[in-house]
TrEMBL record:
MF terms (GO), sorted A to Z: alpha,alpha-trehalose-phosphate synthase (UDP-forming) activity; trehalose-phosphatase activity
Gene Ontology process terms (BP): trehalose biosynthetic process
Keyword line: Glycosyltransferase, Transferase
Enzyme Commission (EC) number: 2.4.1.15
CDD domains: GT20_TPS, HAD_TPP
InterPro entries listed in its UniProt record: Glyco_trans_20, HAD-like_sf, Trehalose_OtsA, Trehalose_PPase
Designated name of the protein: alpha,alpha-trehalose-phosphate synthase (UDP-forming)
Biased composition regions of type Polar residues, renumbered to the chain: 825-838, 853-873
Organism of provenance: Trema orientale
Length: 938
């Protein structure tokens, strides 16, 4: 591939895809160099540790809360052994990777005051993270034991350090409330569509809050350990629903930390997730990560949908965007170490097991189910489907056997005890009904199998039944396929398991709730022709052997590294934060100041992304922030300061909010202007064509009727359709359809601009922008005030749409390549323009304003009264010169401060985070003015 370092071409990749492709080729090259050594190491590991107990899923034996059933014992030994051999052997540099999970890959057993014995833990995450051997990895997590004394903690930390493990010490109360409570009682059922606990006691609410507090505290404890061991350049990879608060905790401590988060369970639809009381906090905490990963595209899509519907953020093809900050969201299907299973089939113990099984079930087709005994695994439904198959196919009753391995979990919980009894009852009834003295149709085992026995069982199976009701991935299907090179058995797979996204083309997909469908699929699988079995198996086998756990881990970290590169490129385009002290100092030192302030999202109370204040919809019209009333009063009364509120809102809204101040109001993007003591006048350009209004109005009416909680405003120079209170995703779809219709119909040949806001669509006449109006506004201000001194300080603050950001660049110094600028050091010698006056329209009830979109605008009425369809043209008694307003400016570069409020992609010089920052700035400016006046009086 051109551009790769190893082929002699050192050209720098220019795009994200080019960088990722180069990284992929480099990984392949490095793997081929060490492939022989790794093969030898893996063979030794299987021989040494192959007899470890394999089939237990979760954080500890009997726990249901890891998604995959994998052979964790051997995997953990391989991981830890590989970690030990990385140090001090002259190996190439490997990037440091901090893997943070709820549990360490080892469990600790205390043998004395300062003596600990480490036992290999089992679980899906341990085995899947075999891929991290490409990195210099360290594992951070809980060791599964309470260690209250310092001596024990130091001894355990030292013992774990030899295995490259770093413990997080949690006390019993935290473990009970954080792990058993919030993680396993709240999040795990919700993420698997089982819903929240429903109890009719007030104590439930109290316990929920205490569990959530413990959850946040535990996540902070994990973060503290990570921060102590973090080194610059490390990648921090957080895992699973236990640590959803961890990305936020880490980023608050160090915003430059590379943080990824991966979920190993399903992520539910937004309608399910929104039932969680702490829904918003968890989503925002996860979004602090740079890269968020899921097993399937469906889970990733649900997460993005939850962020858009619950938080009101922007969902993009790359992830979730919040005011310029992008969190990448992607699917990374996990895999297994397929070579380990393929090689294991050649081992003598496995061959011996296979021989015994073939002799035991000679003449019968073998069907296999391998599950944890849990509600989501669908074991009762599977057995009932098998019973229905036997009922409908008597000829198969003595020719097929179902082997069901059900690993017991949470045996102390009543719900699980009830499930165990239910399964035993169904199995006993079916065996009593269809069994004989010499054979029974179902062999049910309430225990796990060792690795060799499990591989042999996979190899002799004809049909595997993986019929989970809901599963994150479920890699039993992968393990079955890896062991089927000879038999080429059939896989029946639940469409609700994540593996269905990967193996769906080669498996028979079923709805596990549909007993009739599953029974029919069993018959189809048992009678499937050999050539079809061959094709299906080859498709699945190719996927399983190429999408390995090693490739999964390497791909995620590679994507995370590149996400950081992309973020750095984006950050360079983000303005720096406003140096507030400098802005205030320069303001106080100047003699003639101009403050240009936006209104909505600048001088208003903070409103959430969904158009809500404090979570509730309060007012349709924007209201001035109550804390700004006094500062604005003092600033506007200062004789050295001119305040202009420049807004897209109509005149009535500005009159209601600012009528009591001594300032200038510029409504509808500056097209109408008045000093609060005077009447409205127009600054509109000549030849303003408005013939398009009626046709666009009909389109807006149509979409308003079909989009609940949307509305539109009919202004003098524009029409605005707003859907900030509507369902976010539906509103965006409607806006897209509206734009397509507008461009192909009503405005295809009209002289208009279409301006898209975050929750609005505006159609306005060409030339109607804040920047186009500011020169004329300045001219009228100078004429009205009779300014004798030039304006030597400008502060321009607003949450302006990109179309209106020309107001920022208006005050920037001219570029050398441009035509000679109009002199700004002196005032224009004659400013004689006078604008036609408009009536000072302050009246009108609230209801009449809200129904404004159903009536004609003032502009339309004028045209109707004149009995003409010609474009409306304002009349000027004396036209203003092109640069009349700008000629009053005498700005030095450090006396101009343009600030975008909350909009990070901006042409402004500086950035303010929200309207709260605007409140702080204007308060300090007002206090500075007051102190200067007080000192001068003294």
């Amino acid at each position: 591939m051109p551009g790769n370092k190893y082929n002699g071409n050192s050209s720098t990749p220019r795009t994200r895809l080019e960088r990722l492709l180069r990284e992929r080729e480099l990984r392949k090259s490095n793997r081929s160099i060490h492939s022989n050594e790794e093969a030898r190491d893996s063979s030794r590991q299987v021989e040494l540790f192959g007899n470890d107990t394999a089939l237990v899923e979760g954080d500890n034996p009997g726990s249901p809360y890891e998604e995959e059933i994998l052979e964790g014992g051997t995997a953990a030994r391989a991981f830890l052994d590989g970690c030990e051999r990385q140090e001090g052997h002259g190996r190439p540099y490997k990037q440091r990777l901090l893997v943070v999970a709820n549990r360490l890959p080892v469990s600790a057993v205390r043998k004395g005051e300062d003596l600990w014995q480490l036992e290999i833990s089992v679980g899906g995450l341990v085995s899947a993270l075999l891929g991290v051997k490409e990195f210099d990895a360290r594992w951070i997590g809980w060791a599964g034991v309470n260690v209250p004394d310092d001596v024990g903690q130091k001894a355990l930390t030292k013992a774990l350090a030899e295995k490259r493990c770093i413990p997080v010490f949690l006390d019993e109360d935290i473990v009970h409330q954080y792990y058993n409570g919030y993680c396993n009682n709240i999040l795990w059922p919700l993420f698997h569509y089982l819903g929240l606990p429903q109890e009719d006691r007030l104590a439930t609410t109290r316990s929920f809050q205490s569990q959530f507090d413990a959850y946040k505290k535990a996540n902070q404890m994990f973060a503290d350990v990570v921060n102590r061991h973090y080194e610059e350049g490390d990648v921090v990879w957080c895992h699973d629903y236990h640590l959803m608060f961890l990305p936020k905790c880490l980023k608050e401590h160090n915003s430059n930390m590379k943080v990824g988060w991966f979920l190993h369970t399903p992520f539910p639809s937004s309608e399910i997730h929104r039932t969680l009381p702490s829904r918003s906090e968890l989503l925002r905490s996860v979004l602090a990560a740079d890269l968020v990963g899921f097993h399937t595209y469906d889970y990733a899509r649900h997460f993005v949908s939850a962020c858009t519907r619950i938080l009101g953020l922007e969902g993009t093809p790359e992830g979730v965007e919040d005011q310029g900050k992008l969190t990448r969201v992607a699917a990374f299907p996990i895999g297994i170490d397929s070579d380990r299973f393929v090689r294991a089939l050649e081992l003598p113990p496995v061959q011996e097991h296979m021989k015994e099984l073939k002799e035991r079930f000679a003449g019968r087709k073998v069907m296999l189910g391998v599950d944890r005994l849990d509600m989501i695994k669908g074991i009762p439904q599977k057995i009932l489907a098998f019973e229905k198959f036997l009922e409908e196919n008597p000829n198969w009753r003595d020719k097929v056997v179902l082997l069901q391995i059900a690993v017991p979990t949470r045996t102390d919980v009543p719900e699980y005890q009830k499930l165990t009894s239910q399964v035993h009852e169904i199995v006993g009834r079916i065996n009593g009904r269809f069994g004989t003295l010499t054979a029974v149709p179902i062999h049910h085992l309430d225990r796990s199998l060792d690795f060799h026995a499990l591989c042999a069982l996979y190899a002799v199976t004809d049909v595997a039944l993986v019929t989970s009701l809901r599963d994150g991935m479920n890699l039993v299907s992968y393990e079955f396929v890896a062991c089927q090179a000879s038999k080429k058995g059939v896989l029946i797979l639940s469409e609700f398991a994540g593996a269905a996204q990967s193996l769906g083309a080669g498996a028979i997909l079923v709805n596990p709730w549909n007993i009739t469908e599953v029974a029919a699929s069993i018959g189809y699988a048992l009678n499937m022709p050999a050539d079809e079995r061959e094709k299906r198996h080859q498709h699945n086998f190719m996927h399983v052997t190429t999408h390995t756990s090693q490739e999964w881990a390497a791909t995620f970290v590679s994507e995370l590294n590149d996400t950081i590169v992309e973020a750095q490129l984006r950050t360079r385009q983000v303005p720096p934060l406003l140096p507030m002290r400098d802005a205030i100092d320069h303001y106080l030192e100047s003699n003639n100041r101009l403050l240009i302030l936006g209104f909505n999202a600048t001088l208003t109370e903070p409103i959430g992304a969904l158009g809500r204040r404090g979570g509730q919809i309060k007012e349709m019209e924007p209201k001035l922030h109550p804390e700004l009333k006094e500062p604005l009063k003092r600033l506007s009364d200062d004789p050295k300061t001119t305040v202009v509120v420049l807004s897209g809102s109509d005149r009535i809204v500005l009159d209601e909010n600012f009528g009591e101040y001594n300032m200038w109001l510029a409504a509808e993007n500056g097209m109408f202007l008045r000093l609060t003591a005077g009447d409205w006048m127009t600054t509109m350009p000549e030849n303003l064509t408005m013939e398009w209004v009626e046709s666009v109005k009909h389109v807006f009416e149509y979409f308003t009727e079909r989009t609940p909680r949307s509305h539109f405003e009919l202004r003098e120079t524009s029409l605005v359709w707003n859907y900030k209170y509507a369902d976010v995703e539906f509103g965006r779809l409607q806006a897209r359809d509206m734009l397509q219709h507008l461009w192909t119909g009503p405005i295809s040949n009209a002289s208009v601009d279409v301006v898209q806001g975050s929750r609005s669509v505006e159609v306005r006449a060409v030339g109607v922008t804040k920047g186009a109006a500011i020169d004329r506004i300045l001219g009228e201000i100078v004429h009205n005030k009779g300014m004798k001194a030039p304006i030597d300080y400008v502060l321009c603050i607003g949450h302006f749409l990109p179309k209106d950001e020309d107001v920022y660049t208006f005050f920037e110094p001219e570029l050398p390549s441009e035509s000679p600028p109009t002199p700004r050091a002196t005032l224009s010698s004659s400013i004689t323009s006078s604008m036609p006056k408009f009536s000072n329209n302050k009246g009108g009830s609230k209801s009449s304003r809200l129904n404004k979109q159903r009536s004609m605008s003032t502009l339309e009425k004028k045209a109707t009264n004149q009995g003409s369809t010609n474009s409306w043209k304002p009349t000027w008694r004396d036209k203003m010169s092109l640069h009349e307003g700008s000629s009053v400016l005498d700005l030095k570069g450090d006396n101009y401060f343009s600030c975008s409020v909350g909009r990070k992609r901006s042409s402004a010089r500086y950035l303010l985070g929200s309207s709260d920052d605007v409140v702080t700035l204007l308060k300090e400016l007002a206090e500075g003015v007051s102190s200067v006046l007080d000192s001068s009086v003294t």
